[in-house]
Amino acid sequence: KERRAESVGVLTVLAAAKPSEPLPNYYLGCFHQAMGKKAEARKAYEKVLKSPKGKKFAMAWALLGEIYGAEDQDLAKAEKYCFKALELDPNNAKAESILSWIVGRAIKDRDQGRAIEITKRILKAQPKNGKQWGVLGSFYKNMRRLGDARAARTAILEWESAKTAFDAGEGEDPGAKPAEVTFESLRAGPLA
Q1: Which residue, of 2, 7, 47, 141, has the greatest Cβ tally within 10 A?
Q2: What percentage of the chain has pLDDT greater than the value 90?
Q3: Inter-CA distances, 53 with 22, 112, 122, 185, Å
Q4: What is the DSSP letter of 70?
Q5: Residues whose CB is less than 8 angstroms from the CB of residue 50 and which lie 6 or more positions away in sequence, other chains included
């Protein structure tokens, strides 16, 4: 605890001395969040986003989304911040995770249309995300939109087949054959 307090003190001084630099406030936010001080974490992350460099810092957007969603239950704000994080960094796992949680909340609230809308927006940022294609396929299957469900699952198969071919080194050795990816083999993964 003493070391955390000391670190927070050093970062506070550094953040005040260099307000245009986003990292001191980012790390200050991380420390506060880890210590359960969400209000202080929020203030630090908001300071990050006020600086020109910080506006491009995807993780700060995602962590603010986490605070707004989990702590404040402001799902609209959480969604906005997380989609900004994905816009800046389409591979931001934290933002995708929070958005997936929001999708779960929409399902719990019986708002499948909203859940589908958010899932499609995630896929717009991450078109090769097999898990999200599987989620979308499941939504469509539950709605008896079997053609759309099949199309979503086909997207998984196409991506996984390409990934398997790449992983097998296809193109490097003309005799190499990619492992076969079938619908059944994916059932245990994103389609479960």
Answers
A1: 47
A2: 42
A3: 7, 37, 25, 44
A4: I
A5: none
